[in-house]
Amino acid sequence: MELSQLRMVKAVAECGSIALAAQQLHCVPSNITTRIKQLESELGTALFTRAGRGLCISAAGQVFLGYSEQILALVDQAKRAVAPHAVPTGNLRIGAIESCATGRLPPLLAQFHKRYPQVALELVTGKSQQLLDDVKHHRLDGVLVAGRIDLPKLSRTTLYHEQLVLIASPELEPLSQLGDVHRHTVFMWPIGCPYRAALENWVAEHRLEINTVDYANWGSIIGCVSAGAGLALVPEGILQRFDGTAHLTTYRFAELAPMPNLFFWHSETGLHGPRDAFAALLTEHFAENHAPLA
């Protein structure tokens, strides 16, 4: 069964004859006759009966025509949905690391929902490795992660570079250099966080040891630091999100280079209206609100 056969059934039913249907479809009558006979053989029933010089649709044909019209309408709808300039509709599955989902994404999600109300956006959070695996296997349409990452089968665009900030309570002894972190407890996101890895790699290179406490919640981390329990390394976006609720001393050391934040999608998915609209919004926003990428 092919879409062309469904169009032929619809045309014959509307025109009442194969000759007129052939003119409408710009093909020869014999082609329509052959294709409809093949379809009737496949279905095991007649779709049309003779009525003088024309054709009349049968009872079974009337039922089949109803489904044919629905299928053809859905095909047209699908074409419009994926057309380059179509208004995005449907489902969009986005993943993000927690720092991005909490720090940078909330106003963008609100803007996206306002701009594209016909898109049902689902956001999930997780570790970078799992999110990238999910987009690789088409479980997610796109993901936002941090780090210097390049993977086969995945396309990416760099959105911005996130400044890393050490935070402490004003009651703690001031830090004069990054190496002073070994004198304090450091509250960090659990293993798998790219920002944690940046500090741990620097500490390992300089043969220092630090006492770490793992919390999988930025609010808890900042709350403990604000209470004077130690230090934390946080991305600038998280600091801005919580800055109104925590009185903190901040340190920006040159050794902690800004971390690229990227949007990944599967290279083989081609045109995807909702995802492409979301990516365009991200690019537009960060181009306007961040300094040029390093």
TrEMBL record:
Gene3D superfamilies: 3.40.190.290, Winged helix-like DNA-binding domain superfamily/Winged helix DNA-binding domain (1.10.10.10)
A matching Pfam family: HTH_1
Domain HTH lysR-type: 1-58
Top-level taxon: Bacteria
Statement: the UniProt record of this protein carries the keyword DNA-binding: yes
Classification via InterPro entries: LysR_HTH_N (IPR000847), LysR_subst-bd (IPR005119), WH-like_DNA-bd_sf (IPR036388), WH_DNA-bd_sf (IPR036390)
A single GO molecular function term of this UniProt record: DNA binding
Keywords recorded for this protein, A-Z: DNA-binding, Transcription, Transcription regulation
Family that this chain belongs to: Belongs to the LysR transcriptional regulatory family.
Protein name: DNA-binding transcriptional regulator, LysR family
Species, as recorded: Pseudomonas psychrophila
